[in-house]
Amino acid sequence: MNILAIESSCDETAAAVVRDGRETVSSVVATQIDEHRLYGGVVPEIASRRHCESICGVVSEALEKAELAASDVDAIAVTYAPGLIGALLVGVNFAKGLAFSLNKPLIPVHHIRGHIAANYLAHKELEPPYMCLVVSGGHSHIVEVRGYTEFGTLGRTVDDAAGEAFDKAARAMGFPYPGGVFIDNAAKQGDPSKYKLPKPKTANPYDFSFSGLKTAVINLIHNADQKGEKLDANSLAASFQKTVCEILTEKFIAAASEKGCAKLALAGGVAANSGLRETLSAAAEKHGMELYIPPLSLCGDNAAMIGCQGYYEFLAGNLANESLNAYATMSLDAARF
């Protein structure tokens, strides 16, 4: 079964053809990073306009690379929630029009479910149940993956997501957008023990809170500026990254241990962070747990992961019609379409 998938939840216009849920036949991503970098972050209106300009070409390229005509695909999958509403609407409406014109099934896919599914493309042997840590610019979740379309959220961010905290802390340190990769690179040259940073507490032990940590970094920088002191930027980056990675890893391992789960997975844009990959890998090995990590190409937003999850949504009968709408927010367990 060949599924044409479309992803436009933020600032990447992506299309892919995925076969039988596990094989990426083609994958195309048009990024807007250089333009949004001028503003220090994603500008929703600009993102929506660029999706409108790019989506036809991206879909055509994905089909061309797959050596398929649009009429050859068996279904159309699209990200419909959560994300920037204007950006999502571009992908959803394009997918609805294409599915209607071709008389093909339309498969709505939750963005976070897509990130989790990215691991299936890289690890053919991975099957539920397992625990997944999803960390990206807008999401930080500990998810119990009970089945391909059955999930239970054990913990989530109560304020800033991990990726958002990386970007905001990076901006305060003077790094360009997106800041995560710059902090990661700087951290490799710094002393992670030089600056003591807080680990915010949450009522639910598996929830995350990164707003206070981000504010601590900003206050540290402002206080140094007021005193005319020079901070060690590399060591501050290393200390911040170490703290974030420890928070994520400690809570994730604790949740997995409580559930008696020895099979783990990592997903989302922040899964590309070398510090997190190393910290979580070491913790999993220490506790005798098996850890699956996607390659860097499948960490950020892409349509292949949407096509993969779309296959399992199709098998479960989770289809939509021309009334499908986009939603800026939606819990992982919800299904409204």
Provide structural commentary.
This protein is an alpha/beta fold and 337 residues long. Helices cover 44% and strands 19% of the residues. It has ten helices and ten strands. The chain has helices spanning 33-37, 44-66, 85-102, 111-122, 162-173, 179-187, 211-227, 233-259, 274-286, 304-315; strands at 2-7, 12-19, 23-31, 75-81, 106-110, 130-135, 140-147, 150-156, 263-267, 290-292. The strands form two sheets. A five-stranded mixed beta sheet has the order 3-2-1-4-5, sandwiched between helices. Strand 2 and strand 3 form a beta hairpin. Helix 5 (162-173) packs across helix 6, helix 5 (162-173) runs antiparallel to helix 8 (233-259) and helix 8 (233-259) packs parallel to helix 9 (274-286). The longest helix is centred in the C-terminal third of the chain and has 27 residues, at 233-259. It is globular and about 65 Å long. The relative contact order is 0.18. The mean pLDDT is 96.
List the helices and strands and how they pair.
Blueprint: E1 2-7, E2 12-19, E3 23-31, H1 33-37, H2 44-66, E4 75-81, H3 85-102, E5 106-110, H4 111-122, E6 130-135, E7 140-147, E8 150-156, H5 162-173, H6 179-187, H7 211-227, H8 233-259, E9 263-267, H9 274-286, E10 290-292, H10 304-315
Parallel strand pairs: 1-4, 4-5, 6-9, 9-10
Antiparallel strand pairs: 1-2, 2-3, 6-7, 7-8
As a percent range, the share of strand residues is: 15-25%
Number of strands: 10
End-to-end distance:
23 Å
- Low-pLDDT runs of 5+ residues are none
Tally of helical runs: 10
Mean pLDDT, rounded to whole units? 96
Radius of gyration: 20 Å
Walk across the major sheet and give the strand order.
Answer: 3-2-1-4-5
Helix fraction, binned, reads 40-55%
Would you tell me the structural class of the helices and strands?
alpha/beta
Strand count, sense and barrel status of the largest sheet are: 5 strands, mixed
Shape estimate: globular
In N-to-C order, the SSE pattern is EEEHHEHEHEEEHHHHEHEH
